[in-house]
Amino acid sequence: MTTREASKTPIGFTTAGDELSDVFSSLSFDHSADSDIATIFSTDARTFGIRPADSEGKRFGATLLLNKMYSWRGYGAGQQVVGRPDQITLVAADYHDGNALGTLTVGLDRGIPLLVDALYRDEADALRANGGQLCEMIKFAVDRGVNSKHLLAALFHVAFIYAYHLNHCTDLLIEVTPKHALFYKHLLGFERCGEVRLNPRVNTMGVLLRLDLEYAAEQIRIHGGGGKNSKNMTLYPYAFSEKEERGVVERLKRIELLPESAGEA
């Protein structure tokens, strides 16, 4: 499989779905500028915002989207997005109608065990023993009808900023199906960090991958903002430019300081 082909492959446990059903067509989020971390103008003439799921209503919307995609892939529909101080859930929502297009959660290694510890505790502990500050990317779902590198890159970049710039993490872990590991390896630079094992949460085989966040920072610095004119075939050219990244960092810092009730929709 080529890198270009890999970019069209559904992502890990977390990307699946079909056309939005009526319930998803009516799902909307707060459209105010204050709710957006970043607004992205995609090449398909679609505009979307990256927003924190910082209220029960927004987390409910992310949960609906997540379970829609998981069910389509046969992973079950028992997932739930919850509010915790050691994690952030992001939602990519259509700027005009508020439909949820994608979501992911980043969990920090802050006392409560990471989900990857259930199957890969030895591998995670080895990273910790080497001084690694760990985080994990979980509950990542993108509607199958959305084929936008801008959306994928924006979700990833905001997650990276939260983990690397705001919380000083060094290693990002993710569990994916073996065939979808190619996406993460080719387009973001993840490396295999564990053996293939049955993941009972989704009843399918999975493998642990690791991304060195210093490597990601370097790739963003070199390629960010290049877009389709870049010769680099990864997702990094679709990340924010250095100037845009600084703005997102400050925006995310301000949002993180707001009380959760301030974002209630």
Describe the structure using short key phrases.
nine-stranded mixed sheet; disordered C terminus; 265 residues; globular; 9 strands
Q: Could you characterize what this model shows?
A:
Mean pLDDT is 80; it is low at 1-34 and 261-265. Strands 1, 2, 3, 4, 5, 6, 7, 8 and 9 form a nine-stranded mixed sheet that branches. The chain has helices at 3-6, 22-25, 56-73, 117-129, 149-166, 181-188, 213-223, 242-257, and strands at residues 38-41, 47-52, 87-94, 100-108, 134-142, 171-176, 191-192, 197-199, 204-212. The chain is 35% helix and 21% strand. The protein is α+β, with helices and mostly antiparallel strands.
Q: What is the string of SSEs from the N terminus onward?
A: HHEEHEEHEHEHEEEHH
Radius of gyration: 17 Å
Which percent range describes the beta-strand content?
Answer: 15-25%
What's the helix count? 8
SSE inventory with pairings:
Layout: H1 3-6, H2 22-25, E1 38-41, E2 47-52, H3 56-73, E3 87-94, E4 100-108, H4 117-129, E5 134-142, H5 149-166, E6 171-176, H6 181-188, E7 191-192, E8 197-199, E9 204-212, H7 213-223, H8 242-257
Parallel strand pairs: 5-6
Antiparallel strand pairs: 1-2, 2-3, 3-4, 4-5, 6-9, 7-9, 8-9
Helix pairs in contact: 5-8
